[in-house]
Amino acid sequence: MSVPTTVSIPPAGTYKLDPAASSVTFATRHMFGLGGVTGSFKVLSGEITIADPVTGSTATAVIDAASFATGSAARDKDVKSANFLHVQDHPEITFRSTELEESGEGWVLRGQITARGHAARADVALSEVRADSDGLTIRATCRVDRYAHGITKKKGMAGRFLDLEITARAMPV
All domains of the chain, ordered by start, with CATH? Predict the structure, then answer.
């Protein structure tokens, strides 16, 4: 299914993410693909720089790894442990863009996500970019392969891929 895009090029400038108005939710599978799991992470900080030309734009974001929440206390504790995210040693998950590219009917922000000390490529598909008098609203999706981040325990019991939905609100600096 194709997601309709509503991307308008915002004014050039630097914007800081508003953590209270930004979110990262995810969906994945477990039990050998039989069960669905949804959850969320909290956004700690981030910055978006809109350049002229727009293809020179950049974005960074920092996510609180310990904020992983699915509504199952036992699962959340296990995912935060050394089995998966190891939040004691790796409290943050970061995204840093490397390029912005027009792709088909939309835009893709290419970059790297670093989780548990391992960086791996991430393609963030922008589905909405809207500027208003208070700043920017951005909606995007991204698929993360946990194996690419060295998170390989409990194969089959825990899904390999997480499909992220990102909502970001950013204010001009």
Answer: 6-172 (2.40.128.110)
